[in-house]
Amino acid sequence: MLSVVVLISGSGSNLRALLEATENPLFGAKILAVGADNPADGLAHAEHFGVPTFVVSPTAFASREQWAEVLLANVQHFKPDLVVLAGFMRILPQNFVSALSPNLINTHPSLLPNFPGSHAVRDALAAGATTTGVTVHIVDEGVDTGPHIRQAALDILPDETESELHERIKVIERQQLIEVVRDIAQKKIHLTQLSR
Ligand code: GAR
């Protein structure tokens, strides 16, 4: 059974989808804990499923590296095989990434390398893109630059708002993320090979 820690910052709809998927013992993965950088609404999903939570806010630390050390200690307490960033909206410093990568993956609402960063949906609309999508990728020391694991595209509709588009993206994103975690658990995806 693949053991997973999920980190979130917001509403946690991707987390919820993973929690539901892992209820099936045949899925092959189990979420041990959920962490956040703030008292995020999405932590309620973990509590609903009886999964422990922790919050490590950067505001309590003098530097990003000190914050990341404590976040990492909280993650490693659970000895996960995989750490999933599911709407975790902070850039993780090198000390965190190098301790976990390639067993550290992120889901991002664009077809990377297009529109990295924290406003991917807004940036795609502002650029006049007609297609966007989702990328699940290994986290490396850059911002949304790590090796891609899976991508899925969708057409942008005329006059679509940022929130409408993001909601449509999230529907396919949840499916992609579930399939990636399942395939890692079932050894159909080998993160070490992808990161070479
Ligand atoms: C997701 O669309 C995720 O890709 C995005 O935040 C959303 C979280 O939704 N992450 C990023 O933009 C990271 N750069 P959720 O809280 O409902 O799962």
UniProtKB/TrEMBL annotation:
Binding site for N(1)-(5-phospho-beta-D-ribosyl)glycinamide: G12, S13, N14
Leading EC class: transferase
Pfam family, one: Formyl_trans_N
GO molecular function per UniProt: phosphoribosylglycinamide formyltransferase activity
Keywords of the record: Purine biosynthesis, Transferase
The protein's role, per its UniProt record: Catalyzes the transfer of a formyl group from 10-formyltetrahydrofolate to 5-phospho-ribosyl-glycinamide (GAR), producing 5-phospho-ribosyl-N-formylglycinamide (FGAR) and tetrahydrofolate.
Family: Belongs to the GART family.
Record protein name field: Phosphoribosylglycinamide formyltransferase
Taxonomic lineage from the root: Bacteria, Bacillati, Actinomycetota, Actinomycetes, Micrococcales
